[in-house]
Amino acid sequence: MNAPTQPAHVTPQYPQREAPAALIEALSQRFGTQLSTAMAVRELHGRDESAFTTVPPPSAVVFAESTNDVQDAVKLCAEHKFPVIPYGVGSSLEGHLLAVQGGISLDLTRMNKVLSVNAEDLTVTVQPGVTRKQLNDDIKSTSLFFPIDPGADASIGGMTATRASGTNAVRYGTMRENVLALEVVTASGEVIRTGTRARKSSAGYDLTRLFVGSEGTLGVVTEITLRIYPLPEAVSAAICSFPSIAEAVNTVISTIQIGVPIARVELIDANSVRAVNRHSKLTLREEPMLLMEFHGSPASVKEQAEMVQEIARDNGGADFEWADTPEDRTRLWTARHNAYFAAVQSRPGCRCITTDTCVPISRLADALLDSVREADESGIPYFLVGHVGDGNFHMGYLIDPDDDAERARAEQLNHQVVTRALQLGGTCTGEHGVGLHKMDFLVEEAGGGAINMMRTIKRALDPDNIMNPGKVFS
Amino acid sequence: MNAPTQPAHVTPQYPQREAPAALIEALSQRFGTQLSTAMAVRELHGRDESAFTTVPPPSAVVFAESTNDVQDAVKLCAEHKFPVIPYGVGSSLEGHLLAVQGGISLDLTRMNKVLSVNAEDLTVTVQPGVTRKQLNDDIKSTSLFFPIDPGADASIGGMTATRASGTNAVRYGTMRENVLALEVVTASGEVIRTGTRARKSSAGYDLTRLFVGSEGTLGVVTEITLRIYPLPEAVSAAICSFPSIAEAVNTVISTIQIGVPIARVELIDANSVRAVNRHSKLTLREEPMLLMEFHGSPASVKEQAEMVQEIARDNGGADFEWADTPEDRTRLWTARHNAYFAAVQSRPGCRCITTDTCVPISRLADALLDSVREADESGIPYFLVGHVGDGNFHMGYLIDPDDDAERARAEQLNHQVVTRALQLGGTCTGEHGVGLHKMDFLVEEAGGGAINMMRTIKRALDPDNIMNPGKVFS
């Protein structure tokens, strides 16, 4: 583990709140060397990929190795009414892991076993610390795969907590559609199961989907049963450059509207291509670009690609450039997944404020083009990537964290992007979650009545407000 | 409206509980002729397609015409702490509509407008009284369709409440995957919205999916935003007869496991074929049969069908018989959808006890074949139909409602079917919901901890227990 790259600062908004000594003592007795109070470990667990740099770290970190460990940690925290914050790999972009009301960080990375692979049922059950790449490596020999791929090599637990998606969601859905069942440790330390391995069910309230996207605020997910898919018989990937973002977006809109079952269709802007070229030593044309992938039988893949090429050409797109071998495809998608880190590295010392709006597909051009224009006018370095087949895109504003004026300008841009998306019938967050950063936007989006219902559920399931408090709603 | 075919009887389990006179008076003042206390109307709203025939009818029926009507009806019932039971078309198979603790039936059939069709976004927003056939008629000119099709021409509100699915779910998912957002009147009469028209979102708790499948126990759904789909370029339907059920089931298991994107794959047994032949004047071979449909481009449809024909042949299946024209296909699927009614009519005066288990696909043969053997041994007339691509099948036991011994035997068979499904990792209900009939099974399936969490949510959102009480859990 590395020490954090920036020290944590105490600010008036987030005063240090230390765990009671008796709690630390009880945790120490129960967990021995699985408990750490070393400042470097605490600081590492007190931050994530978000632009929040000024929150005090958690009081201690428990490295859970079993559901029973999670139960006992939660029970001890419950006794002392002290917050518990589940921790996966720390790749949240929204401050989910930050101990804004103090807390014990519950590190789940040692719970990293693939518990069962039911290849004949296209399901798998994993512990929350398994990462998406680890899972796919693990099931490679079955000719099955798990499609959900946020950019980072996130943990399945974290992806469940944030209702994550990524590049394949346009074809395979998000965590919402692909989590079949969960084991959860509740706020009182009880273990419950929320579903079965059946593909569908009408058996009572959908607790599974209540926990998917609950951001650690209702309980700790300790097992996840997922759908997996047969590797497609044929896969082909292509890139296509466009004179402008508008033309790329219009190609995507038409592709979705006529129902081409495209597996991936990602937009990256010229800024992102530039950063990716530098970072991954590639020579992609530094123009707005769609990265696409088609899955199916050889004939169907060919047919899909021809249809999209025709639409692209009508919109001024270039000829497709193909990535035919698995190695070429891996290189292409690794470059795409690295776009975020490549862009962040393009401005040394910066932090990134990332938007995450998602709009109905017909409104994508409206949502996106104005956002680009405003970013260009602002003078703040930025990049744009998007899971555009879903109507979801990310503006990344690369700010100097010590320049308050720049941060304020970036937040203003973010605000404009969200306001526009809501006006267009969309959501403030397509896949990153609310965390700390979007609580006000959530109120605006959902309305007071829905927020009150969420609060009522939170109070009912976590009456002492110990599960990752201060996230989702204030 | 017709008078009920059987009179309601009061039994000790379900004593009559009449609405307070002051509530009826207040409803009458607010709703005038939209309120009915006529016994024929009450009795019609006090039963459904289930085998429960002995529950007293609701005290009155309010015919809501707007969200505001629903609000006012709920508020008046809330003032008097008296139950409200939302009513769609009465096609529940599980006693959802029965006033087991007394109640006001809230008939939503007049709220039957398609409010908006966003063809370019593949979404539609409807009132709860719109039926699935009405919706598809309404959007026919857009070349889009809504795929979810429980056998009955159910209301979209009822389908939302029970998390319904049907024959297309294997390809297009269930109501869980296809409801994007809801407007809901809560137990206190407040109106909330639970989502946006964006295809995906990570914005807070998934209230949409909490209400989908909540069986009217948490609030009344007053608007539903749904995903719709481009009509496939090519559709082809086929039937295939098999020497035995086992061989048909094994064909389905292999088809799903290799990932053929089949749109529909339905099993019907020889008993069902016989009933359908009589009912719909058809001449289908009276053997176990798969009814299939393939969607896609012409080439892809051909390819899919060839793959499945090959698998079927390996399993002793006959040559596919094709239904090529839209008319032939409609006839075929109408026959399938009428299987339930055809079977019920094959034993005059009977009521049907229907199982609804769903298991992981690899366990389907185990779950199904023992159920058939036990039914054969019981001597009770029965039929079998199944959405077998999802691992979901229905045994329908046709009982004489006045023969307690026969009812008990059928319930015993049902119990065995469910117990086996749970042992195989499945669910007691794939698509009909829990209602009155599966409350004990739900406890067995979900476990005490999950049931308690459901109860906690119910108590938090409906503290006076007025929303369809006595369903899902006792």
UniProtKB/TrEMBL annotation, chains A, B:
Every FAD-binding PCMH-type domain range: 54-231
GO molecular function: D-lactate dehydrogenase (cytochrome) activity
Cofactor(s) required, per the database record: FAD
EC assignment: 1.1.2.4
Pfam families linked: FAD-oxidase_C, FAD_binding_4
Top EC group: oxidoreductase
The keyword Oxidoreductase is annotated on this UniProt entry: yes
Protein name in UniProt: D-lactate dehydrogenase (cytochrome)
Signal peptide per UniProt: none
Keywords: FAD, Flavoprotein, Oxidoreductase, Transit peptide
Superkingdom of the organism of origin: Bacteria
Species in which this protein is naturally found: Ottowia thiooxydans
Entry keyword annotation includes Flavoprotein: yes
Residue spans crossing the bilayer: none
Record family assignment: Belongs to the FAD-binding oxidoreductase/transferase type 4 family.
